[in-house]
């Protein structure tokens, strides 16, 4: 499927494929967040607003959990759905281009044209930064997001992390659901409490005190016993 050209002279082609569902992915901090205006202020204000009582380690853990939830919501409004936002800007840019070809473009439309182009450039750079971090290529600072190197790094990492076939007790398992169930069962067996027959005290015979000895435990001290304990 061909998409709108945007700032490039070429129309990108999109090849879609069905992705297997391996379950929820871990949350990560994105380096590009610091380039978004208001990020540092948001994190500082949110962190200071959290009130947690307890010892230092517990407070830190709970605050990190809460800031994670807050950043997830912040990400939805600032850095999520970048491709669709870029596509909407490209549609608007295409409309302005067609308007300029048919008639003289007004000053207001010209200002909007420059603004849309700037937004496409900013969001595209933000989207490329996220993609570069996902590829784990830390030294890749500049370049085309559609470069052969970038795609090879990203594809190589996906292949390296993929689990296509595993063996459990001599049985070969393939597919997402069997592998997920096998991994879940493996860790479940490690963390659940095993049923172990432990020795009890029900059948043991202990020495017991007779009624006279029991009474001696609660009998008041005599004056003679107190004198012997204090002065002797």
UniProtKB/TrEMBL annotation:
Keywords: Kinase, Receptor, Transferase
Lineage: Eukaryota, Viridiplantae, Streptophyta, Embryophyta, Tracheophyta
Protein name in UniProt: Cysteine-rich receptor-like protein kinase
Molecular function GO terms recorded: kinase activity
Organism: Trifolium pratense (Red clover)
Record's keyword annotation contains Transferase: yes
